[in-house]
Design goal:
By secondary structure, this protein is mainly α. The protein has helices spanning 3-43, 73-80, 84-92, 105-121, and strands spanning 59-61, 66-68. The chain has four helices and two strands; from the N terminus they run H-E-E-H-H-H. The structure holds heme C (HEC).
Length: 131
């Protein structure tokens, strides 16, 4: 084998690795974008999902006979952004008066990814221990 061939192969594998990395990053971004759309659809009636969205009215809880303000996504992200499994559970087994919703696995995954992406931008995210 000539030295030149080895060099071409090595360059090719570096490019392949870079492309794989880029593709993975693009897929992750895509998941976050999907999650944002799903969250706007499924959560924004009660939660402030985006900072620009006015805060929705508190939700009436018939069990406690009072209205409860749903936390903003920014707050949810800074509290649970590092705990995707707990976050998933809070979404699929919600506390009243949040309603239980059925999700496709991909939709739930994307919503959690979106909330995690907000945590990366949250002011106190880096101070929280990763659990
Ligand atoms: C019908 C209104 C409503 C909808 C729709 C809704 N939520 Fe909620 N959610 C609430 C309320 C109200 C609370 C606060 C419950 C409490 O504190 O008792 C809450 C709490 C939560 C919590 C827990 C916060 C905590 O600190 O315990 C998470 C996480 C959450 N919502 C995520 C979501 C996501 C994600 C969606 C969309 C898929 C969604 N919610 C849709 C009303 C709603």
């Amino acid at each position: 084998m000539k030295a030149g061939t080895v060099k071409v192969r090595r360059t090719t594998s570096v490019i392949a690795a870079a492309l794989a990395f880029w593709a993975a990053a693009a897929a992750a971004d895509n998941l976050v974008v999907q999650g944002k759309l799903r969250a706007i659809e499924s959560c924004s009636a009660c939660h402030q999902v985006m900072a620009a969205q006015p805060r929705p009215a508190p939700v009436f809880d018939p069990d406690e006979n009072r209205s409860i303000q749903a936390p903003t996504f920014r707050r949810i992200a800074s509290e649970y952004g590092q705990q995707p499994r707990l976050l998933r559970k809070l979404i699929t087994n919600p506390r009243h008066p949040m309603r239980e919703q059925q999700f496709l696995a991909d939709d739930l995954r994307s919503i959690v990814a979106f909330i995690q992406s907000l945590a990366q931008n949250a002011p106190n995210a880096s101070q929280r221990p990763v659990r």
